Structure formats: C-alpha cells, structure tokens
Amino acid sequence: MKVILTSDHGGVNLRKEIADLLTELNIEFVDTGCDCEGSVDYPDYGIPAAERVANGEFDRGILICGTGIGMSISANKVPGIRAALVHDVFSAKATREHNDSNMLAMGERVIGPGLAREIVQTWLGTEFTAGRHQNRVNKISDYENK
Ligand code: RB5
C-alpha cells in the first residue's frame, strides 16, 4: 500500500507523529506537507494530494490540518475521493467498511497523538465490506460521472 501524507501549518506536529507511525509500520509513504512556520492555505496541500490518490499514484491519503475540516472539504471536491473526517476509532473502522474511504482527515487541534495513531492503524487495517455498501458508493460515483 502506498500512502500520501500531507498537512498545512495547523497539522505539522501530528503529521510528523503519523509519519513516524507509518515508518514503524513499514508502510511506503510520501510526505508532501508543509514545514512552514507561517500560515499556508490547506487547499494548496489537500487538493494536490487528493488528485494523486484519485489518479491511482497512491492507494490512500492522510490529511491533517487544525480541525481536519478544511482538508476534508477540499479533498472531497476531487472526483473519486471519499475523504472521511475521523476523530474516533469506531468511525475509522466504519468508514472503511461502509464508505470505502480512500482519504482520512484529522485535526491536530482536536485529538492527541495517541488516539490519532490508533485511528490511522485501524483505518489502514480495515477492509471495505462491499455488499450493500458497494451500491451506495456506486451512487456517489454515478453522481460524479453524470
Ligand atoms: C488554520 O488556522 C486552520 O483554519 C486550518 O488548519 C484548518 O483547521 C481548516 O479547516
């Protein structure tokens, strides 16, 4: 599995924590986040990362900003992206099983590093259930393609 990881200035610290986790898990990843001291604009990081998941260069993407909200809104504008804003382990599992989410968004100002690590491990390790959920995901793709 190849993962793209990115953040704006609001997510730098949590992004570094998640980069460490991906290294520990031996997961191949590219980090395109900012090392900025000043303020940047989250769409400038979230949208290019989402495009690289949508075009198949990466299997999954992890997006971090202050709240995770701006990143998830931005990524979900890219056709083919199902970005889930997640701050609990239950939702991390459910969004993989039910939504086949291909991007995960989290907020550094919302949760701590320990929970974020658990969320990422759960999200990366859970398979899509398909079945009745496939039909629902197909309806999202159909809307994008109409
Ligand atoms: C930056 O201050 C902050 O607005 C951004 O990181 C994010 O939380 C936006 O949704």
Q: CATH fold name, please?
A: Ribose 5-phosphate Isomerase B, Chain: A
How large, in whole angstroms, is the Cα Rg? 14 Å
User: What's the CATH architecture?
Assistant: 3-Layer(aba) Sandwich
Order of H and E elements = EHEHEHEHEHH
Mean pLDDT: 98
Q: What is the makeup of the main sheet?
A: 5 strands, parallel
Q: Which percent bin holds the helix content?
A: 40-55%
Query: How do the strands line up in the largest sheet?
Result: 2-1-3-5-4
CATH class: Alpha Beta
Cα(first) to Cα(last) distance is 30 Å
Strand content: 15-25%
- Number of separate strands: 5
Enumerate the distinct ligands. Answer: D-ribose
How many domain regions?
Answer: 1
Helical element count? 6
| Low-confidence regions | none
Family: Belongs to the LacAB/RpiB family.
Keywords: Isomerase
Organism: Terribacillus saccharophilus
Active site: 65 (proton acceptor), 98 (proton donor)
Description of the structure:
- D-ribulose 5-phosphate binds at residues 8-9, 66-70, 99, 109, 132, 136.
- The chain contains 6 helices and 5 strands; from the N terminus they run βαβαβαβαβαα.
- It is α/β, with parallel strands linked by helices and 146 residues long.
- The protein is globular, with a radius of gyration of 14 Å.
- Strands 2-1-3-5-4 form a 5-stranded parallel sheet, with helices on both faces.
- The protein has a single domain (2-144), classed as Ribose 5-phosphate Isomerase B, Chain: A.
- It binds D-ribose.
- D-ribose is lined by residues 8, 10, 42, 65-67, 69-70.
